[in-house]
Amino acid sequence: MLRFRSVPIGTSGEAPIDAHGTTVGHGDFTAQARQALTNVSTVLKNADSGLDKAVKLTAFVTDIDHQHAFAALRAEHYAPPFPAESFIQVAALADPDWLVEIEAIGAVASD
User: Fold this and answer.
1) Phi/psi of residue 80, each to 5°?
2) Which of 41, 48, 97, 101 is spaced 20 to 30 Å from 17 by Cα?
């Protein structure tokens, strides 16, 4: 459990793209979700936070049936208690090849 004074830091929706802006894992939800989580992790680390300090995740998906696959990925990155999570099916994302987009709120120690 986090026990320090903290302020929240949020990410925008992180897409399943690599450092060159190329979509990763065409048609593969797990590969795309893994890349999006990697991107979330990078943004949080750059703000002196991290996945281990995430308090809220929101996953936007084009197929709600991927919820079990996402839960398995969550278990790779977090130990209970898991951060609060919303898993929301949407009609489409910004790129028609994307199956998932993830945003997060992480804690950052304050002075």
Assistant:
1) -60, 145
2) 48
Nearest to 2 by CA among 85, 79, 77, 59: 79
Pairing of the two strands 84-89 and 6-10 = unpaired
Q: What is the value of pTM for the model shown?
A: 0.85
Q: What order of strands is seen across the sheet that includes strand 54-61?
A: 6-10, 100-109, 54-61, 84-89
Convert the pLDDT of each residue in 50-105 to its tens digit.
777 788 889 999 999 999 999 998 888 777 777 889 999 999 999 999 999 999 88
Does residue 37 or residue 75 have the better pLDDT?
37
**Residue among 50, 20, 22, 26 nearest 37 (CA):** 50
* Residue labelled with tokens 């709120």: 105
Q: Which residue has the higher pLDDT, 109 or 1?
A: 109
Task: Locate all alpha helices (DSSP H) within 11-66, ordered by sequence.
Answer: 29-46
